[in-house]
Structure formats: C-alpha cells, structure tokens
C-alpha cells in the first residue's frame, strides 16, 4: 500500500513522501549475501542492481494506488465518498498525522536501507576469489590469498551486463581521462587485475554464445567462468584442451595472464584463443580472428613467422595502422597482454572431444626420477612432479586418456588405501606437535583433511626449519599411502587442491637451453634446475613448504608468454610456496603474515639470483610481484627477454589506448609502458 498526503509535491519528508510496503526487486534478504571468511564479515564481488524489470520504491513506475487524506469538515453525500479515502475529523487529525508521519518515516527509512543494501550487495556472486567489501562510499577489493588489496570509490567499480554498456564505460573513461582496469575473479596471487583508480568487473557478461562442433570452437563472453564453459560443453561431448589447477577463473583472466596446465605436447591456454572481441579506448571494438590456415594440427595457433601460416593470412590490415599488423598478429599480441590494450568482451577458443583420463600417483626417490624422466616426459599426456623439500621423495602424477579397449586400464579407478589409513601418519604428527606446542594448533577434528592438517602444523611455527622438515616427512608418508589410480573426466582429473592462502612464485624456462653450463647438461635443464634449488634449500636451511610443483607445456605462439617459442619448444614451470594463516583482523595474525612474507621474499630472491638468469627463466605474469622486482631484478629480466615485443606493444597501445587509461601503474612500470 502506498500513502501520499495532499499538499507539497512528492519528495519532501516526512508526509510528502512516497512509501511502499513491498519491493519488486526480487532480491534475497541481505543476510543471505553474507559470507564468513576468516572470522570477518565479507561480501563477494557482484554487480549492482541492473535488471530492466526491477522497480525501486518511489520510482515513477511504482503502483499508483494511493490513500488520500481530506480535512474538510463539510458533510458529503454518499456518492461523494471514495472507498480509498480515509475520513477523519479535526480532533483526530493530530494523532493521525503523527501516526502517518511516524509510519512514513519508518517505512521510508526501511525502504531506502533495503534499496541501498540490494544495490550494494546484489544477488549474483563470484566464487571464493575476489572479495569486495563496501563501507559507506568506498570499495575494498582483495585477492584470493588476501596478499593484495585496493580501496577506491564505489562509483569507480563498473559492472557492464552487455557489450553496449562496456563500450560506453570505456568510451566515457577515455573522454574523461579516468583510469580503468579489467578485473576478473581476482585469483591471481599478485593481484594483477586490481586497479587503484577504477575497475571493470565482467561477471555479468558470462554467456556461452556459440558452440561449433564442426569447427571445434566455443565462443563465450569474457566473464564466463571456466566451470561454466566446461558444463556448457559437456552435452556436446567437448571440453577444453587443458586446465589449470582451479576452475573459478573468468575466461578473459585465464587467457590474459597465460595460465597453463601440464603436458609437454599442450601449450598454455592463451594459445587456444583463435578469436576475440576487444573494446579499446582509441579504436572502439575490434573483432580479431585467426584464419583457418593459421592453426596448428592440434588446433592451437601458429606463429605469424611460420611461412605456411603467413601465406594463409588474408591481405587485410587492421584499422589502417601505420605499422602494418595483420589481424592474426594483433590477436597473438592482444590475447596475452595483461589487459593493457583493451577490455576483452568475447573470446573464441579451440575445444577438443571430451575424454576421460586415468591418473596414476606414485612416490619415487630423486634418483629414480632422474633415471626415468626423459621417457616419462614424452610418453605421458600430462605429467606433474611434486618435490618435497628436506626429503628424498618426489610425488609423480601421470595422466593419460582412457582406452576403453584396454580392459586392464578400464578396471583402474581405485585408491590403494582408505582415507583413515592415508591420514594416519600426519594425524600422529599433529597430536605430537599439539603436545609439544600447546595452544599453537586448533583442536584435531575428524573432518580435517590432508591440506588442513598440513597447513595448521606449518602455522604453529612456519619458519622453523626443523618443524617444516617434520611436516614435509609426514607429507611424504601421506602421499606414499595415497599411491594408486583413479579415472574421471579430464576437467576433474586435472584440477587439484592448492591449499590455503599463500605466497607463491612460479617461473618458466626451456627444457633445453644453449646457455646451460656443463654441470647441468647431464640431465634435462628441468632436472638440473631442481637439483640446484634443492641444494640451496638444504645448504641455506630454508623453511621451504611442500610441494615445489613442476609442470611442463609446449611453447606458446603468444609473443608475451613466458613460454614463447623463441627459446625452445618445451618449457618447464617450477613453483615455490609458503603458506599463510588466513587473514584476520587481529594484530598477531597480521604480524605472522608479515613475517612469512619477509621470509618468502628472501627465498624467492635467492632463487632469482642463483637460478633464473642461468636457466633463462621468466616469471608467470600472475605471480610476478611488482613490489619484489627491485630485489629479484624482474624489470631488467623482462626488458631483456621481451624488449622487441614490448616495443611493438607500446606502439599498438599508443593507437588503441592513446591516453593510457588502461593498465596499472606497477604493471606499466614493469613493461616499460
């Protein structure tokens, strides 16, 4: 019911206000949007109310039925009476006015509060990744590990729901010289998508636009999450060629930072982008495509330098540019450009037939790995090593397509030990440490799995080398008890639990490299790198948490990829890690996180000094810490490796983003833009 007084125009308080007792917004209660994260109240990044069918209280389209008050004491005939009119005499006017005013004030306040809440905390949410916490008129955006955050005015965070809205935001920002930064699920450990001046979140642009079984492609909006794409492809018997460890990424972020899975014959995910629509400040929306002749046999994109692909490129120059980029060449540059050239609106990706994988997990000694590595690397479709520091053990995970005709293989799909037996050793250590370090570990419960037990023990004293060694030995025992096989669809097999909040650094380098010294030439470069890294950890007694993960990919045709094919055809990726206690608003936790950060910086710096230049290693774009680059020499290393490419990137950016509103200050500094 709406109440309106006769008198001044609507908009004056309290009696001249329009008040509604119902909402047509269709939003869930505010409490449903809350999520407990580390004991504090946080809200997931979601776009504001934008439904064209929604009607807020007091809007012109709200119901017009009103109850009017009349104050005349003149008697009226029966036909003058209106059932919607409230009649009252002069004696009751005061209390009635007071009651109406108080009710109107309370209802108006409640309605405005509800409207504000549903606008600020809308109904759709992004997975546990970017955390948007709003207070008053500011928004704080935090990445998944809570290692990076920015606070900016809420009006500077935009949520387009379609291409027209996205184009308008980019055009207005360009005209008004306002900085904007595309941000996805904010899963990147270095928070590369966070922009201190303005951000565009594409969570509402998440549609699956087209699936072409004949061409083997899927076209999606940039905000679609990997898990959405997987489920949309499943009924068509298709899937993505490879996966990283998690599936919550938005597709644009997944490709713009060059995410990767593992497999010496499969390139990083950016190489499967064969078309994209990108909204630029200077040239508007560009629709870039790879011609059929530009694709390799595996469906990924060829290099523009290849003679065959260059001949297949149509003689069509993009945008009348003065430096003569063809569409395919610009596409290769733009598909991994860290959001510096434009905001990705749509992507077309190559897909492959859906298939099941048989995963085999075994624990080997380091010597056994060295003897078998060359055959394992090329005989397995997917291969992953998890080196356990301060032990002699390596967890080797091999995954290969299920052959339905191989009855022995088809029967696989079991684990050798039940969960209770696998956890026995690590639970035993947990009880011992609980006695040795009273009050340092939470109470042991039956629902605590392997990663929860391990991370809690690390946090009891995360930089104590002896404690870390004991935890790592218990981890090796757990993996030994977990040896076995399992069979499932590829998207289920290739994902894995990354553990809790963490500092992480990952580099890529060619498996064979001409500059390697003789001491490491007896192995592939990837094993030489690990030999030296483990030696540094032992000699310098570093509190290295497990695992040190090693994966492989084929080279990428994207010139800014850390695995660009200018240095080799197969790349190894090695990641080091230190876990953190979950972020909380208490001084002790923040102090411990800060202490671990300092130790990790020393660990990473030691790796950079001893290994990175020696092996031609380049950091993963989503894991390069700009704040640490002064110690690790990242800026100089990037300039040496990508100098010519960065020159091209800068020229393209001058045309596509002439006012430099895209990007982020630290990223621009690293790239020399």
Short structural description:
The chain has 673 residues and is an alpha+beta fold. It has 18 helices and 25 strands. A hairpin with a 5-residue loop joins strand 19 (382-387) and strand 20 (393-401).
Verbal overview:
- The chain is α+β, with helices and mostly antiparallel strands.
- It folds into three domains: 2-120, no CATH class; 211-333 and 342-353, Uridine Diphospho-n-acetylenolpyruvylglucosamine Reductase, domain 3 (2-Layer Sandwich), CATH 3.30.465.10; 356-634, Vanillyl-alcohol Oxidase, Chain A, domain 3 (3-Layer(aba) Sandwich).
- It is 31% helix and 19% strand.
- It is built from 18 helices and 25 strands.
- The strands form seven sheets. An eight-stranded antiparallel beta sheet has the order 21-18-20-19-23-24-22-25. The chain has a five-stranded antiparallel beta sheet with strand order 11-12-16-14-15. Strands 5-6-7 form a three-stranded antiparallel beta sheet, with no helix packed on it.
- Strand 5 (131-135) and strand 6 (138-142) form a beta hairpin.
- Helix 10 (424-436) runs antiparallel to helix 12.
- The model is unreliable at 1-89, 116-133, 293-324 and 514-522 (pLDDT under 50).
């Amino acid at each position: 019911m709406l109440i309106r007084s006769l008198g001044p125009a609507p908009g004056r308080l309290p009696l001249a206000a329009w008040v509604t007792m119902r909402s047509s917004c269709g939003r869930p209660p505010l409490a449903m949007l809350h999520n407990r994260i580390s004991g504090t109240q946080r809200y997931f990044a979601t776009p504001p109310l934008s439904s064209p069918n929604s009607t807020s209280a007091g809007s012109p389209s709200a119901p017009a039925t009103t109850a009017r008050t009349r104050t005349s004491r003149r008697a009226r005939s029966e036909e003058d009476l209106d059932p919607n009119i409230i009649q009252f005499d002069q004696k009751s006017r005061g209390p009635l006015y007071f009651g109406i005013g108080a009710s109107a004030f309370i209802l108006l306040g409640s309605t405005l509060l509800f409207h504000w809440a549903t606008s600020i905390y809308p109904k759709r949410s992004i997975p546990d990744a970017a955390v948007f916490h709003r207070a008053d008129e500011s928004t704080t955006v935090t990445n998944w590990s809570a290692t990076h955050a920015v606070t900016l005015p809420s009006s500077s965070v935009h949520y387009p729901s379609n291409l027209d809205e996205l184009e308008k935001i980019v055009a207005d920002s360009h005209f008004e010289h306002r900085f904007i930064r595309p941000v996805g699920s904010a899963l990147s450990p270095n928070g590369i998508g966070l922009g201190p001046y303005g951000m565009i979140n594409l969570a509402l642009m998440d549609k699956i636009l087209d699936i072409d079984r004949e061409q083997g492609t899927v076209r999606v909006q940039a905000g679609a999450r990997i898990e959405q794409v997987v489920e949309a492809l499943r009924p068509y018997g298709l899937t993505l060629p490879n996966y990283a460890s998690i599936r919550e990424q938005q597709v644009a972020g997944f490709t713009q930072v060059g995410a990767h899975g593992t497999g010496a014959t499969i390139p990083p995910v950016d190489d499967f982008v064969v078309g994209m629509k990108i909204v630029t400040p200077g040239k508007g929306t560009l629709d870039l495509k790879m011609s059929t002749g530009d694709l390799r046999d595996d469906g990924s994109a060829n290099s523009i330098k290849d003679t065959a692909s260059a001949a297949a490129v149509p003689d069509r120059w993009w945008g009348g540019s003065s430096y003569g980029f063809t569409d395919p060449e610009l596409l290769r540059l733009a598909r991994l450009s860290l959001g510096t050239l434009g905001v990705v609106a749509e992507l077309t990706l190559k897909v492959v037939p859906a298939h099941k994988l048989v995963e085999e997990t075994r624990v080997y000694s380091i010597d056994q790995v060295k003897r078998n590595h060359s055959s394992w690397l090329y005989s397995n479709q997917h291969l992953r090593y998890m080196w356990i520091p301060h032990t002699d053990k390596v967890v080797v995970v091999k995954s290969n397509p299920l052959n339905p005709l191989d009855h022995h293989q088809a029967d696989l799909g079991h684990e050798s030990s039940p969960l209770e037996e696998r956890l026995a050793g690590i639970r035993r250590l947990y009880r011992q440490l609980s006695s040795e370090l009273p009050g340092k570990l939470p109470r042991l419960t039956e629902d605590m799995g392997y990663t929860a037990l391990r991370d809690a023990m690390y946090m009891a004293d995360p930089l104590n080398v002896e404690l870390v060694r004991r935890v790592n030995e218990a981890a090796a025992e757990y993996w030994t008890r977990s040896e076995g096989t399992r069979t499932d669809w590829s998207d289920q097999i290739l994902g894995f639990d990354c553990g809790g909040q963490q500092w992480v650094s990952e580099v890529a380098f060619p498996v064979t490299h001409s500059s390697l010294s003789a001491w490491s030439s007896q192995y592939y470069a990837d094993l030489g790198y690990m030999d030296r890294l483990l030696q540094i950890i032992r000699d310098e007694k570093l509190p290295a948490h497990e695992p040190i993960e090693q994966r492989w990919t084929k080279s990428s045709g994207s010139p800014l990829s850390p695995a660009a094919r200018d240095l080799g055809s197969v790349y190894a990726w090695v990641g080091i890690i230190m876990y953190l206690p979950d972020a909380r608003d208490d001084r002790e936790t923040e102090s411990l996180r800060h202490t671990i950060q300092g130790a990790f910086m020393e660990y990473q710096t030691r790796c950079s000094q001893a290994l990175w230049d020696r092996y031609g290693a380049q950091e993963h774009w989503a894991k390069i810490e700009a704040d640490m680059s002064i110690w690790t020499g990242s800026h100089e290393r990037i300039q040496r490796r990508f100098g010519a490419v960065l020159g091209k990137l800068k020229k393209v950016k001058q045309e596509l983003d002439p006012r430099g509103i895209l990007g982020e200050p630290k990223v621009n500094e690293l790239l020399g833009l």
